[in-house]
């Protein structure tokens, strides 16, 4: 591929240190699912674990847990995604914990000779995974003979990132407390956890024993609302540092005459003579097709170059009429900084009417990733 991703080890470690401090005394679980939020699982693992030793890592698939083991990771792993029952024993062999949050899965698990350790998931308001908290006393009774296989009680917030007003989260916390009480009553002393990035930043009372931090480990705020909420209660923002830059190079440049069309569908028509650069990146590589014609641009020589015409499968065209001496091979920034200009993943997400989570996780896994020391 003629584009590449650069990862800043320094930024990653600084973010980790921030969350270590913010979460303390809770344990910190970097969530590195979905190819480490598109950053590259292998590279992020290497960059992180060459410097720090996380007690926990969170992934989505059992296969990702196996990969982490193949890299030599010895700590605890939690698979946060739904695990097919046919993979439970595979999870146990990878020493990966799984969530159990419905009776059907619980029945299967109870009958297995080789059991992965579990975190009981309760649904406090997300309607995704989890038992109703009211069911807990009975479930804990069933689980009594398997005490040593139960590691945690967990839940997940539905509405922290998208709002400044956190009353729904507080309702969920109350439901979670109900679950924690059931543990006490059953005399079960296990880890409890509910917080992801936004709630780790905003709701100290939601930290409990483990914080599960995904997007912000990579230096990004979960949303503008989270930023604003944070500033309402703190003097200044935590200095999160984006870890990822996405770069390419100019494939060729060409002159376009007034009246010429650019790209499929002739959606762009040159109103004057222009110079454009063709870039070897399109939606296959992960640049959202919908982003063109919405104020979107790339950076070349520290200057904004608007995307013109539709984004193709493996190419896009940008206007370089205002620049001189751009040539084949010149460096192009798709996400990241060049000079005084920055395009962050959130901005690209806004152009594409989506969130930075989606932009990042859609970066093609085949794009080469390089870890830089700084
Ligand atoms: C993805 C995920 C997280 C991390 O969420 P961020 O908003 O990226 O911090 C935490 N917990 C669970 C269960 C998840 O699925």
TrEMBL record:
GO terms for cellular component: cytosol. Pfam families: Ala_racemase_C, Ala_racemase_N. The modification N6-(pyridoxal phosphate)lysine is found at residue 33. Substrate binds at residues 128, 313. The active site is at 33 (proton acceptor), 264 (proton acceptor). Keywords: Isomerase, Pyridoxal phosphate. Its EC number is 5.1.1.1. Belongs to the alanine racemase family. This is Alanine racemase. It comes from Pseudobacteriovorax antillogorgiicola. The lineage of its organism: Bacteria, Pseudomonadati, Bdellovibrionota, Oligoflexia, Oligoflexales.
